[in-house]
Specification:
The structure is a single chain. With 216 residues, the protein is mainly α. It has one domain. It has a two-stranded antiparallel sheet. Strand 1 and strand 2 form a beta hairpin. Helix 2 packs antiparallel against helix 3, helix 4 runs antiparallel to helix 7 and helix 5 runs antiparallel to helix 6. The longest helix is centred in the first third of the chain and has 34 residues. It is elongated and about 75 Å long. The termini are far apart. InterPro entries: Uncharacterised_IM_CreD. Keywords: Membrane, Transmembrane, Transmembrane helix. Pfam families: CreD.
Length: 216
């Protein structure tokens, strides 16, 4: 009797419903901290690479392949490599949180490469045409490339528009600073103030719901 009862109970136990497993949240505060460190780290690396482009511009000027004025502008522009790379990639991080589309480390690295390549392309084109024309062309190329890349990752038009808008504003501010001369410090300081205010605004929209970050 006991063995028969045990046999009758086993099918019932086998058919007991399994509790659904709750996936671990990805976009946590810890993830955001590690992501920020990663972005700052690769921004430093690309800044070091950009310093090599700075030296290359000086050597091209010595060979009279590049005018002194254009060489100075290219060298000055590379000084903003860290800022533009860090701001762009951190913006991409916030866009990733907003649209819940994973951007892997390789894709972050490739985006950083495109931002760094901007300065090499600028140097090459500045040898063949006026600096401001070269700057406009390379900006359009870089924004188009990264925008298309983000479109493939996110599949959201709003994400592409937001990314392109951020890049256009960044490159526009840099061009303005390059030509402002003595006013560059004032314009740069005001620009940093505005960027800080925007960053503070978006951090207010960051909420932790069920241990996961979201932008509301």
């Amino acid at each position: 009797m006991e063995s028969q009862t045990t046999q009758n109970m086993n099918p019932q136990m086998a058919q007991a419903p399994k509790l659904p497993t709750i996936p671990e949240p990805k976009y946590t505060m810890r993830w955001l901290g590690l992501q920020t460190l990663f972005v700052l780290g690769i921004s430093i690396i690309f800044t070091m690479i950009a310093s090599g482009i700075d030296s290359l511009a000086e050597s091209r000027a010595e060979l009279t392949l590049l005018s002194e004025a254009a060489s100075t502008l290219v060298c000055n522009s590379t000084g903003y490599c860290f800022a533009i790379t860090a701001i762009s990639l951190l913006s991409l991080t916030l866009i990733e949180i907003r649209y819940r589309k994973t951007v892997n480390y390789l894709q972050y690295g490739l985006t950083g490469c495109a931002l760094c390549l901007f300065f090499l392309l600028l140097l090459a084109m500045a040898e063949k045409m006026p600096f401001y024309i070269a700057y406009a062309i390379v900006t359009a190329m870089t924004v188009g490339l990264i925008g298309t890349f983000v479109k493939g990752i996110m599949a959201y038009t709003k994400a592409v528009v937001l990314t392109a808008g951020i890049l256009i504003v960044e490159y526009g501010i840099i061009l303005l600073l390059l030509y402002m001369g003595s006013m560059a410090l004032l314009i740069g300081s005001l620009s940093l103030f505005v960027i800080l205010a925007i960053a503070m605004y978006f951090t207010l929209k960051l909420k932790v719901i069920n241990r996961e970050l979201t932008i509301q």
